[in-house]
Write a structure and sequence with these properties.
Chain lengths: 268, 268
């Protein structure tokens, strides 16, 4: 239980104050924050609540969109927005800022180059503020719209160009469980893993964004992947991060209780 | 135009006789057949029509499901069914039988081993009948239900255990375009490519099965991938294979005309 972190998207019905208090009450020591929820409460008040309830921030989600376009197709200055997100992460005491790097804009190759360039521009800025950038490869079904980084290997290649305390990779099971190279990719990322996110995949998979479930209801071998990231030196918080419309409709307290049970039964 | 092949799923409204006649009329020399359409017409009659209209079979779709379960979750003897499919391919004069290997049943690792074992069992049988097995990696979003082979690399690893005339790999753009290793994977598959299927991906991608479009309407660089497979020695038919509910509702002749135009504009 010491390592369990509630990624607050899982309990979407809860505000940030409710989620922080809910974690404290349930004995969950970590929380993964989202910027829209932080904005509702305000950064200072959020930081105060985290301190009051003694809940640590495993990560802040998210910066990125370096290819210059949102998933909806609008232009965006991802570098500028990510600078703000780095400042916010520092103010919240979050060690890690999760990056969703952005989808295809122009060619796939040039999109990937823009991502590498943006990380190069931002890494020192993050390092100065004590925030580690967490490059999160997303599932290939989200390549066109959200992330031209699809594998741990590919994220690691970019991370390795920078100091380990400035850039790491996030291993999110939903995005990478299918990868035939996942074991060797995680091993290659020793010392570079900045986060481990768990959930399951719904079967059949009918939704490209909301096809997640609590651990235990799908094809992912959580203990195997947990052993892989631990062998690669990662002993930090483990976020349970579930995008699921049914869970989102339910009270946060109920969802957190089930999250804790699923974590005990299938992950820890 | 010499290399264009109509995968008949693209013109789903057409029966096999309509599709074969339609190809001949439009000057399309190749067709990719599906077993359900062949069954409606009968193998002998289908073979007769192909000869009469002088249309070659670029591939027969499909054998596989070696992990013992259908996408709907029913038990299936994939090896026995694939033997029948190999016989059918031989009777139709199809050089290649496309394999969709099956989804996760038990662990991912054991599922992949079952696939490798099944290919080992079937390769000599196929070789004796002049049919090449085409291992088709499917998009990772179809890993749980349809194919534990997700990358060209992984399919190639299995193919290389057998003679090149018995087992090859199918490169279908929709499934592999996002792969950061696709160029080197295709290069490694020199002499092993048994088919090249083109289409585009819809953006946003909202359906895991029907998210395809005619070439030109998505993020895939067809001429780049075509150059890659050609550099790897593949000079055979190029199938346009589109699963799209809107296309399927329209008359086959219209769809084929658009297919030819899209192929000319974006592929050839």
């Amino acid at each position: 239980m010491d390592r369990l972190s509630l990624n607050q998207i899982t309990t979407k019905a809860w505000s940030l104050p409710e989620a922080v208090a809910g974690c404290a009450e349930a004995g969950v020591r970590w929380i993964g924050l989202w910027r829209d929820k932080v904005a509702e409460t305000g950064v200072e008040e959020a930081a105060r609540l985290l301190k009051e309830y003694d809940v640590g921030v495993s990560s802040l989600c998210r910066g990125g969109f370096f290819t210059g376009v949102t998933p909806e197709g609008s232009p965006v200055d991802g570098v500028a927005q990510t600078r703000q997100a780095i400042d916010e992460a520092a103010a919240l005491g979050a060690d890690v800022l999760v990056l969703v790097v952005g989808g295809v804009n122009g060619s796939l190759k040039s999109s990937r180059q823009r991502v590498a360039d943006a990380v190069g521009e931002l890494a020192p800025y993050a390092g100065e503020r004590g925030v580690r950038l967490g490059l999160e490869p997303l599932h290939p079904m989200q390549c066109a719209e959200r992330s031209v980084l699809s594998t741990v290997d590919e994220a690691l290649t970019i991370a390795l160009e920078h100091p380990a305390d400035q850039v790491g990779v996030i291993v999110d099971e939903f995005h990478v469980w299918w990868d035939p190279r996942i074991e060797e990719s995680i091993a290659a990322a020793t010392g570079r893993i900045a986060g481990f996110h768990v959930c399951d995949q719904k079967v059949p998979l009918t939704d490209t964004l909301l096809g997640r479930a609590l651990p235990g209801d799908g094809p992912i071998d959580h203990r195997h992947l947990k052993a892989c990231v631990e062998a690669a030196g990662y002993t930090g918080p483990i976020e349970v991060e579930v995008f699921d419309a049914d869970l989102w409709r339910r009270p946060g307290g109920e969802v957190l209780a089930e999250t804790i049970q699923a974590y005990r039964d299938h992950v820890s």
